[in-house]
Design a protein that fits this description.
The structure holds two protein chains of two kinds.
Chain A: H1 2-24, H2 28-48, H3 52-74, H4 88-108, H5 120-123, H6 126-137, H7 142-150, H8 152-180
Helix pairs in contact in A: 1-2, 2-3, 6-7, 7-8
Chain B: H1 4-26, H2 35-52, H3 55-61, H4 64-87, H5 102-134
Helix pairs in contact in B: 1-2, 2-3, 2-5, 4-5
Classes of the chains: A mainly alpha, B mainly alpha.
Chain lengths: ~190, ~140
């Protein structure tokens, strides 16, 4: 119990520190790498919540592939962000952020404690899913049986979303890719 | 990039990464993992190859046409499993009738569906990398 609190406090402190560094840094590459680190710490957070599948996804997608894709996409942008002068718009932004953060923190007091058996999330359908996964589907990993069987429609939707996103990027960029790839700019470096 | 250590390491690592991706893909029923994670891991192997060698070299082992075909095939496979169930007289995407018993049907259905997810995710990631890596955002070529 006390060990869990220490680990969670350490992870939250680490995430906050990384977030502060992300805000302060002006170099694009540091921002991308710090965002990847943030995802990795978030993955550790999911492990400490016993959500191993989500942690795996966060580590591979959030920390791995999106960092690489950002690096590939942003390598064509200016290396540094220009420092912006303080003006009146920032005060509105600060007020909005403080207000929203305050509301969220206030709302978080109504959330049930993590990991309690009497929480609504464990009462409704979870029992059926866990029993059905063992008796009807026969798969030890309940996450997979929910993802692919009980919520197959949702996963189909997600797959189609990824497919559509890929197609959209290809429609926007592919024609230009095939034209500009003849003299490959990377090969000469 | 002309670094012999990186090139040799990439050649050594390429196959184990794909093997690990396949393990995550087909072991998702019993441990953490599944189509999304496996697709990303396999794509990471190809992206590593493209980064260390060049995008053109990677296009030899994963041609864009094959890439686009597999990209569409994954989503199609997912929908098709549902339609097969529909033809055999079950609600859409409930896999009970696909095997000899209900349990076997569920196993086959989940395996195929996860494989479809993995194919789509993997090839979308590779094609995104191809697009971003080769596209010059409004800049002229140096040469």
């Amino acid at each position: 119990m006390i060990g869990e609190i220490i680990i969670n406090a350490f992870l939250v402190t680490l995430m906050l520190t990384i977030a502060v560094f992300i805000i302060n840094t002006r170099k694009v590459i540091s921002t991308i790498l710090l965002a990847g680190t943030y995802s990795l710490v978030a993955a550790l957070m999911f492990v400490s919540l016993d959500a191993v599948d989500v942690a795996f996804t966060e580590a591979s997608v959030g920390a791995g592939i999106s960092t690489i894709l950002f690096l590939a996409a942003l390598s064509n942008l200016p290396k540094e962000e220009t420092e912006e002068k303080f003006n009146i718009k920032h005060i509105y932004a600060i007020c909005t952020c403080t207000l929203v953060a305050g509301l969220l923190i206030w709302a978080s007091y109504d959330l049930p404690l993590v990991g309690q058996l009497e929480n609504p999330v464990h009462q409704h359908l979870a029992q059926d899913f866990i029993e059905g996964s063992r008796n009807h589907i026969g798969i030890p990993n309940v996450v997979t049986s929910i993802l692919a069987s009980y919520r197959g429609y949702d996963t189909f939707g997600e797959t189609v979303v990824i497919y559509t996103a890929g197609i959209a990027v290809l429609v926007l960029l592919y024609d230009k890719v095939s034209n500009s790839s003849k003299p490959n700019p990377r090969k000469n470096k | 990039m002309d670094n012999i250590i990186l090139k040799v390491c990439t050649k050594v690592l390429f196959t184990p990464i794909i093997l690990f991706g396949l393990y995550v893909q087909f072991h998702g029923d019993f441990g953490p993992g599944g189509g999304f994670q496996a697709g990303v891991i396999v794509a990471a192997a190809f992206i590593l190859y493209a980064m260390v060698f060049s995008v053109e070299d990677c296009k030899v082992i994963m041609p864009p046409k094959l890439n686009f075909f597999l990209l569409a095939l994954g989503a199609f496979l997912y929908g098709f499993v549902g339609i097969v169930g529909l033809i055999l007289g079950d609600p859409y995407l409930s896999y009970d009738v696909l095997g000899s018993s209900k349990e076997a049907g569920q196993h086959i259905g989940i395996l195929l569906v996860e494989f479809g997810v993995g194919l789509t995710v993997c090839n979308v990631m590779i094609s995104l990398f191809y697009s971003f890596a080769n596209f010059n955002f409004g800049k002229k070529n140096n040469d």
